[in-house]
Amino acid sequence: MKAVLPAGLGKIEVTDIEEVEPAAHELVIEVGAYSVNRGETFQLELPRDGWRPGKDIAGRVLRAAADGSGPPIGARVVAHLPHSGWAERAVARVEQVAVLPDSVSIEQAAALPLAGLTALRLMRTAGSVLGRRILLTGASGGVGHYFTELAAAAGASITSVVSSPARGERLLELGAETLVHDVADARGPFDLVLESVGGTSLPIALSKVRPGGTLIWFGQASRQAPRIDFFDFFAGPDSAQIQHFHYDSEPADGPDLATLVRLVDTGRLHPELGRIDDWSATTEVLEDLRDRRIRGNAVLSIRKETAPVSSTDPRTVVTHSVEARPDRRGPRVPRH
């Protein structure tokens, strides 16, 4: 079968590899589409020996689990894998899989796992957000879109930090109240800050926390380590706390994936598909993700369904790509 393998210095190649062989509690999925995450672009720069990319996939069950657990052959599923999903076929543990209804497309489902699980579990970590003021940095990616829609529907007041108006316009439609293009411009204080940029962004975001509030650090998109002076707490967020969050802390992702699928199916969650393309365009998509030219999630199709996702489907939005930053004359026009 064919699979995407690292080729050094951030590059990839599609090559033939041996067929996957599942254990008794695993199933084989014929991959229809996979989502590319920004973190995977970083891992490809210095890949571990034997590592293959691919955490978010959707497709059909080709071989059911030998122990009789999990969905049957032919079932449409979404799965969250530790790796190796960018391939014609992939192996998944039964507890990492959720079944798809006919109303949710393979492309929509492929955009759910990493970003959707992160947003859903951030909501749990935050607790009740009803009436709370929330500051969200790095908001224009898949996590930002999912969290904004979920939190706004639960009654939160959200200020989103994005690099340009084009990258933030969909967040306003999903319920964000305010957009700023620099975290320093956010008007606090905030009950909760969700920080995913790192570097200089984190200490500035911390200064926006109300006394007794919380900053949850869940990413480092800038790839720069934040530095915090303990005495910064005396300058504003007295008695505030900083909490580190990692999305992959649950032993089984299937139940949460099923929740995300149900929310999409019922029109309460709308995947933001910033780019849908054939998997032959993976190299180009990786470059666009690195340069922040894609809003939301990027999805690559291996096998198209007879009824592919439509840009008019009310459960999703297809935006193709947007420029990362405005020029001096104002926002650039989204590219189609």
Descriptive notes:
With 336 residues, the chain is of the alpha/beta class. Helix content is 22%, strand content 27%. β9, α5 and β10 form a beta-alpha-beta unit. α3 crosses α4. The longest helix has 14 residues. The chain is globular. The C terminus is likely disordered.
Overall SS class: alpha/beta
The portion of residues assigned to helices is: 10-25%
Largest sheet: 8 strands, mixed
Distance between the termini: 32 Å
Mean pLDDT: 88
Q: What shape does the CA trace take?
A: globular
Quote the beta fraction. 25-35%
Total strands: 16
What is the helix tally?
Answer: 8
pLDDT under 50 segments (min length 5)?
320-336
Q: Give the H and E element order.
A: EEEHEEEEHHEHEHEEHEEHEHEE
Radius of gyration: 20 Å
Protein topology:
Layout: E1 2-8, E2 11-16, E3 26-36, H1 38-43, E4 56-63, E5 76-80, E6 89-93, E7 97-99, H2 106-110, H3 113-126, E8 133-136, H4 142-153, E9 157-161, H5 165-174, E10 178-180, E11 190-195, H6 201-206, E12 209-217, E13 241-244, H7 254-265, E14 272-278, H8 282-290, E15 297-301, E16 317-318
Parallel strand pairs: 8-9, 8-11, 9-10, 11-12, 12-13, 14-15, 14-16
Antiparallel strand pairs: 1-2, 3-4, 3-6, 3-15, 4-5, 5-7
Brief sketch in words of this structure:
The protein is of the alpha/beta class and 336 residues long. Helix content is 22%, strand content 27%.
